[in-house]
Amino acid sequence: MAHRVTLIPGDGIGPELAEATRRVLDATGIAFDWEVQEAGEATIASEGTPLPERVLDSIRRNKIALKGPITTPVGSGFRSVNVGLRQALNLYANLRPARSMAGVPSRYDDVDLVIVRENTEDLYAGIEHMVGKDAAESIKIITRAASERIARFAFEYAVANDRRKVTAVHKANIMKLSDGLFLESCRTVAADYDGRVEFEDRIVDNMCMQLVQKPDLYDVLVLPNLYGDIVSDLCAGLVGGLGVAPGANIGTEAAVFEPVHGSAPKYAGLNKANPTALILSGVMMLRHLGEQSAAVRVETALREVIAEGRRTTYDLGGSSGTSDFADAIIERLDGGTAAAANPDPASTAAR
Ligand code: NAD
Q1: Which listed residue (11, 122, 229, 344) is catalytic?
Q2: Which of 39, 129, 253, 336 has its C-alpha lying 20 to 30 A from 199's C-alpha?
Q3: How many CA atoms lie within 13 A of 69 on its CB side?
Q4: How does pLDDT run across 177-212, given as a tens digit for each residue?
Q5: Which residue minimizes the CA distance to atom 23 of ligand 1?
Q6: Pocket, ligand 1, Cβ cutoff 6 A
Q7: Is the dihedral of CA 201, 162, 231, 102 positive or negative?
Q8: What does the alpha-carbon distance between residue 349 and residue 93 come to, in Å, rounded to a whole number?
């Protein structure tokens, strides 16, 4: 039976990356029934909202979505579709593996980190108001329930994927109540995994420096929403940039797979952007669907094409377009040269 998946192409470079990814996933021979749902800038004009209810209904029905990036105007206007979607579907865990790839220029060649970001609260709760004309207040919400839930997700991920350590990241020295509660919740959950998974904590500023200098000391990181957003871009930078960083938003009722990067409007429609991050998000989706061998084949083909370096996009030092890069991966899948296993263990967490 075909897997029915909601496909949200998104804005900017989203549609061309979604097309490339769909072609690669279809080339595995796994049957997909793609339910394409437009959201973002285009539907503001046609439907008065960037996140029509039909999109949420489609994901609730199919329980799984592959999503391109969606533009969020800075300052006034609509709230972020990405944040709205995560909150509406209670996709509480944002999982972002950062793993080095041969052929991708970067500072280190052996980074293997997994960022587990809380996805529903913190400063992203969207509670903001003006205080008079010249001051503004944003309210940071941290609850014990959401903090323990994300910490448990991180530890369960570590156990399922043979990872040795979970590091909680916070600023509890300054925000003693909110970040203090996050840290306390992580410690409570860590006690249940004593002897099985190591636990430690780091203050976020120190964590950033340590990740730049000694990323090999870390394994799985668990963070509240805002630090998680920032630190995952830092980790994407450690493995070659946003073009290669995949992600998954996971809840109890649905999962939405999307790259870390945004809609990069300056490259929209130019057939220039790198589809790797969305394709790797597709690999995480394949694992979530139980299609392990297809996941291994796609990831191996992708890694081989990148390592070879002949048909990659500009950000990887190549001169191929998005679609030619995808063709190169498909040719490798068809040629069957991608049978050797080189799976990304990080991706299995999406199961
Ligand atoms: P961005 O990630 O879109 O782009 C920043 C830069 O990274 C680009 O200019 C480009 O140089 C590079 N880049 C990103 N993706 C790439 C790819 N696939 N291939 C090659 N290079 C790539 O970040 P931004 O410019 O800050 O944001 C643009 C818009 O995207 C904003 O409206 C933002 O709100 C939105 N956004 C959406 C999501 C999402 O949909 N989940 C995430 C982040 C940002």
Answers
A1: 229
A2: 253
A3: 27
A4: 999 999 999 999 999 999 999 999 999 999 999 999
A5: 262
A6: 13, 69-72, 82, 242-243, 258, 261-264, 266, 273-274, 277, 315
A7: positive
A8: 11
pLDDT in tens, 160-175: 999 999 999 999 999 9
How far, in Å, CA of 143 to CA of 33, rounded?
A: 38
Residue 185 alpha carbon to ligand 1 centre in Å? 33
Q: Is 59 in contact with 65 (CB distance < 8 Å)?
A: yes
Taking alpha carbons only, the member of 66, 30, 2, 26 closest to residue 255 is: 66
- Token pair for 290: 């139980």
Characterize 172-191 residue by residue with b for buried, 16 or more Cβ atoms within 10 angstroms of its Cβ, and e for exposed: beebeebbbbbbebbeebbe
Chain-centroid distance of CA 258 in Å reads: 5
- Which of 11, 67, 92, 171 does the annotation list as catalytic? 171
Distance from the alpha carbon of residue 261 to the mean position of ligand 1, in angstroms? 4
